[in-house]
Every structure is written in C-alpha cells, then in structure tokens.
Design brief:
- Two copies of one chain form a homodimer.
- Chain A has 397 residues and is α/β, with parallel strands linked by helices.
- In chain A, 40% of the residues lie in helices and 17% in strands.
- Chain A has 17 helices and 14 strands.
- In chain A, strands 5-2-1-6-7-8 form a six-stranded parallel sheet, sandwiched between helices. A three-stranded antiparallel sheet of chain A has the order 9-10-11. A two-stranded antiparallel sheet of chain A has the order 3-4.
- Chain A is elongated, with a radius of gyration of 25 Å.
- Chains A and B meet through α2, α3, α6, α7 and β8 of A and α2, α3, α6, α7 and β8 of B.
- β8 of chain A pairs antiparallel with β14 of chain B.
Chain lengths: 397, 397
C-alpha cells in the first residue's frame, strides 16, 4: 500500500490569492479558471451586484451566467463610490501573504486603484488589466470579431453578409491568457521578488490568434484569401451530412488515414478510386481532397442519407472515423455520455438561487495535485465579513 | 536617470525549455504562446515535416499556417521510427536544466515516450498531454463544437441546419490552457521539487467554457433554451446595421450608458422614449432592450442606412458608442490602424520560405519583463545539430 497514492495533495494553484474586479466575461473567466485550479479568488462587487448580476440566461429570475462564471469564488460587496469602500478594496488587494497581492480586472482602472497606488502599499503587487483595445478603448468580443474578418468566412456558402460566432471565443481566450499571466507573474515574483503590471487587450488576443493561424499572412500575401465554405473544413476534407432520421453529423478526413477509414466505413473504396483516377488526383493529399470535396461529398451523401444516426455511429466507430453528431445544447445534456456517465469534470451541485444542476470543474488534470470538484458560485456578498476578518481589513469608520 | 528603466530585462518565461511534439493547432498553439513569452520551445518533427507541414493557407507552396503557429520556436527533425531517434527525443525532453524537462504533446503517446518512461530518466519531468476526448479518443474542434450545441445557435435567423464557427476557438483555448498548465506545473516544481503529468482534453475545455458561460445550466433548467438570433447579441442590445456605402457595422448597448450614448449619437432620444412608453418598457434594463430589439432596430436602421461608414464613425465615436466596423481579413490588413500605425504587437518579419510579412507577437505585456518581438518560424530541422550539441544529445550510432 502506497501512502502517497491516497494522500490529499493541495490543488495546483493552492496558495494563490487573487482579488477580481470584473464584469461580463474576460475578467471573470480568468478568475474562474484560477479558482477551479484551487486559487482563492475574491470577487468584489458593488452592493446589489455589478452590471452583469442579472445577465441572461436566467432561471426563475437568477442569472445562470453569473452562477457559472463565478463558480468557486468568494464574493465580497463593497461600495467603491465611498472613500472607505475604496480603501477597503485597496487593502484587500495589498493584504500580506506570499501568494497574495494579486488583482485581476477588466473594469476601467481609476486613480485610487491604479498600479502605482497599489505599489505604495505592497511593492510586489501583481496587477493584470484587461482592456478592449491596446490603447484602452472599449471593445468586446462582437466588435473585435467583426473587425478581424471571421464573420465574412463563417456561415452558409452563398449567404450575403457577415455571420458572428455566438461563443464569445476571444473573451474566453483572454480569460485564459489572464490566468496564465498571473501564474507567470507569480513565478517571476518567486524568482525575483518583484511584482508587475500586466496588460492584455481583447483585440490583441484575437489578433495573435489570427496571426498564428495564418489568416493575417494569407490576407496580406494572397490576392484572393479564402472565402466562405459553409461547414466544410478549409484545406482538407470535412463536411456535414444529414442522416436518414434527420440528424446531422460532422465527418472529417484531416489525415490520409482518417480519410481512408471513412472510405472503408462507407464501403466506397472502388468508387473513390474511380473518382481519383477520373480527376487525376490523389486523395492521400489533403489539398486534393479539398479540391474534389464536392464530388467526394456526392459519393458519400447517399450513404449517410440512407442510415439512422445509430447505424452511422456503429459503422464509423468500427472503422475509427473522425466524426461527431451535431447536438443541440438540449440534446447534449440529455443524450451525451459525458453528462450521463461518471465524469470527474461534472457533478450535481447545489447553487444558491437556482437549485441543483450539473456543474463543471476545470478541464486540466494534474497528477501531482488534487482536482477541485465542481463548485457553486457564492451568494453575492456572502463572504464579505469573513474575508474582511481573515485579511484584517477592518470595518473602519 | 533611472538605470532600471532602460536596462534589458529577460522575457517573462525566460529559463523555461519545452519540447513540443505536436501537429495541427492545440499543441503547437500552446507552444507558440510560450515561445512568444520567451520560453525556449523546441518543436520536434519527422524529417520532411509532420502531417501538418503543408497545411493551408499557403503562399507559393509554403504553409502560412505552419509559419504562423511555429513562430519563435526552434525546429529539430528526428525520425522516431528508429530506436535511435526515439532515444534522442527522450534525451532531449529529459536533458538537465532547472526550467527544462518539460514536454508538450497533442500527438498519440507511445510506450517509449510515456510519462513513466520519461520519469525514469528525469524524475521531475513535466508532461502535458492534449487529447480529443477525456478517454483519449479522437476529437477535433469541428466535432467538439458540433456536439456541444453552438452550431444550432450560430448563424442567420431562420437558417435551417447547424453553422460551424470557422475560428478554431476550442483549439486556441486548449493551447492557452496547456501553456498555463506548464507554467503552473513549473511553479509547483519550484515549490515541491516534483514534476507531474497534466492531461487536457479538447472536449473538456469546450465543456468548461459552455458550463461557465451558463449554456449547460440553461439547457438543463429551461424547457426552451435560447434559439438562433442571427448577429444580435443575446439578452441585451447588439445588432448589425448596413451603412449607406454598403458596409456593415456591429453596434452594441450592453450597458444602460452605452445604449443611451447610441440613442444620443443617432439623435433618436424622443423617438426612443416614445417607444419605451408605448411598450411600457425601460431600456435602461438590458432585458427590456432585448425584448424590444426588433422595434429598436427599426428606429435605428434608417440612420445607419443614410450615412457612409466614415460619417457613422464620426458620430458614434463622438458619443462614445460601443461599435465596430465589419472588415474582411483583406480590409483588416489594408485599412485597420492596428496594422498601419506603430503597434508593438506587429512588425515586418522575414520568414524563411515566404518572405517579409507583418507578424504578430504575444498579446501579453509585462512591465517587469521585456517583450519578445515578433519572430519568424524556423526552417524545418534548421536547429537540429545545434540543439543536439547544446543539450549534449549525441549523434550516437
């Protein structure tokens, strides 16, 4: 019997304490990413809640968004319209502790909570500030996305006009960037003893993604950058098919082997070979699959149309095809085995305000640290007195 | 004169050395996020390149995707089909050094490069493994997205069928998660002396995002979760308008003040008040704006349709409206001031293979560490001999 096997290990970010002054997504998402890995995250809101306290989706009047993005945090309410409230926030941020002295915000920074002011009370403070644009101007996921070009290549082929993504992708990326920045700055402080100011613009995070994925270079170098290809996967083989029982599936052949598996699963080996020879193409080459995608789909389509989702699943899984069913969110929570079978990332959790519901944990699993189980969000302001007491922030006159 | 002001400071992740065994997006994106913050990232590919070496978009036959996602890395080619090649990779990963002994992979892990094998040579090794599903099964951004429900709420209102996002959002999030995991595990190793295995599934990263944003709870609790709302922003006010010169703009009123600014900019104060009173609503409440969005848009539309983009810009900026123009990628690189004016995140960089092009740096700015300027990708295999020499990995028989 190995005692280390069952011993409790602290979660990976145990010992970090982060004060969060946030609203909407990017800042609070950074906070929840840290909290779900064991950091102590203290969210500060005005009494009654911030501007996002009632944000939809809601259930019986309670914000499910607020309940999701604040999981595992502690909630403190302070009125920063008063001098006393401002002093308290500053003292909360700069309270002593090796892994403390960290603030994350995506709200406008004022004089009283500026990095320079905080440094006066705690010289090694770490402050992460998220803005919309690099110059501090406002921007949100929707405007950043509009400006970069993605909406013109998203959506059905032939559609006239831009199509926004609904997932606030750049917000979530920025949240993870902010979480990474805090861990990196804490590492730096452990090595050098020095704190710092970290600045991150939502628009810059989006630009970095577009740049590293080749979109920027493509737009500069190619006279005609890629167009709109519906649900097809650009540059290789990936297509949406309808099944006989009116479901949809996403089917891919990103690699030569994946494509061969698909052709074998659908018993179209001879037909596909004939197509290759007729077009003088070699479908082991992703570019050739891309060029012939319409003809390839014509061959595959009847196979999918003639089968139920259940039959498609059996045949594709048997041959190791890369595919997945389209599901609505309702279908996901009702049908997907990730929700019905034991899953360390999901548990039934009782949330103040809207009851017991399946709730997520961090997607990161560290062998050297215990996972934080799925947590509820706090009651707004429910930790105020306790946090003040613990950190010695007095309720001064 | 403060000497510290102009002194060179090492980049924030200086001293970390990460060996990357990756392909496609999630793993290599994690690598580029680390490299752009100053970590030494050594990408290992088979001679001639991995399966993604020619991935589109391309320019004159060279992959712009490969050139973007490998910026700032060192490139080593090793044939892991041979015993000697495998030994070399293992020695590269486990070579000594305080911030070394780290491997990031999103490729299938074999016996020879398993965490247990690596530990034998370096007990404090850190290994981050990205898979598709939590059980190791394959999944990619397209299948994960299809399964979660986003495609059914993305796209034009009334469209029949799912609409995929084109931005590989979950891949990029997973890359940032992996980068964060490495910094967190390095911090843990500094404190405890212990390495570890970190596992991250693309599907879990997506599930965490959906959970924290309230989509999962909404699908469980509400009989009718949200539907498809085109480019409108769910739950508040945000809409796409066409201008008189055939451009499109995304205009938002997420907060009461932003909405008031919009109403004032478009000189519709009286009309909007009349609408509120007719509908018995209060547009300071985001939910009321959402319920009346069609009528609000009807009031606003003629104003946008009658003006050029340039005139719209002047009026909206003057009133501090939250908005942005839709731009294609081509328009972004040609017109956006982030590309034309001095921007520390963008520089002209010469890339081996496709020439000089505007190239991005990390979106994170640390006051206590110097930024890594925008970097080119390496030549495939161009660092092989030098890396082997530096790390003492011999070209053994």
């Amino acid at each position: 019997m190995e005692p280390s096997g069952s011993a409790m290990k602290p979660p990976i970010l145990a010992g970090l304490r982060v004060v969060e002054l946030g609203a909407f997504i990017a800042g609070p998402f950074g906070g929840v990413a840290l909290a779900s890995l064991g950091a102590e995250v203290i969210r500060v809101d005005p009494p009654g809640g911030g501007i996002d306290i009632n944000r939809g989706p809601r259930f019986e009047g309670r914000s499910l968004y607020w309940g999701g993005i604040n999981q595992g945090k502690r909630s403190v309410t302070i009125d920063t319209q008063t001098e006393q409230g401002r002093r308290r926030v500053v003292r909360l941020i700069t309270a002593p502790g090796e892994g403390a002295g960290i603030v994350l915000t995506n709200l406008p920074v004022a004089e009283w909570n500026s990095y320079e002011e905080l440094r006066k009370l705690r010289p090694d403070v770490i402050m992460v500030v998220i803005t919309g644009q690099q110059d501090g101007a406002s921007a949100v996921d929707y405007t950043v996305n509009a400006g970069l070009g993605f909406p013109w290549i998203t959506g059905p082929e032939g559609h006239d006009g831009p199509v926004n993504h609904v997932l606030p992708a750049f917000d979530v990326m920025t949240g993870y960037c902010a979480a990474m920045a805090i861990v990196a700055a804490d590492r730096h402080r452990r090595i050098t003893g020095e704190g710092q100011l970290v600045e991150i613009a939502l628009a810059d995070v989006a630009l970095a993604a577009a740049g590293h994925l080749g979109y920027i270079a493509e737009a500069i170098l190619n006279p005609e950058p890629r167009g709109r290809n519906g649900n097809d996967v650009y540059g290789t083989f990936g297509h949406e098919f309808a099944t006989g029982d009116d479901r949809r599936v996403m089917v891919l052949g990103l690699t030569a082997r994946q494509f061969r598996n698909l052709v074998e699963a659908t018993e179209l080996v001879d037909e596909m070979a004939a197509l290759e020879s007729r077009l003088a193409l070699d479908f082991r080459d992703e570019d050739h699959r891309w060029r012939a995608r319409k003809q390839i789909c014509e061959l595959l389509e009847p196979w999918f149309n003639a089968r139920s989702l259940a039959d498609v699943q059996v045949a594709l899984d048997e041959h190791g095809v890369l595919w997945g069913p389209y599901q609505t969110f309702k279908q996901f929570v009702m049908e997907d085995k990730r929700m019905s079978e034991p899953n360390p990332m999901v548990a039934q959790v009782k949330h103040p305000g809207f009851g017991t519901v399946a709730t997520v944990a961090s997607p990161l699993r560290f062998s050297g640290a215990d996972a934080v189980p799925p947590q509820p969000a706090p009651t707004l302001g429910g930790d105020t007195d306790r946090v003040f007491r613990e950190l010695g922030v007095e309720v001064e006159p």
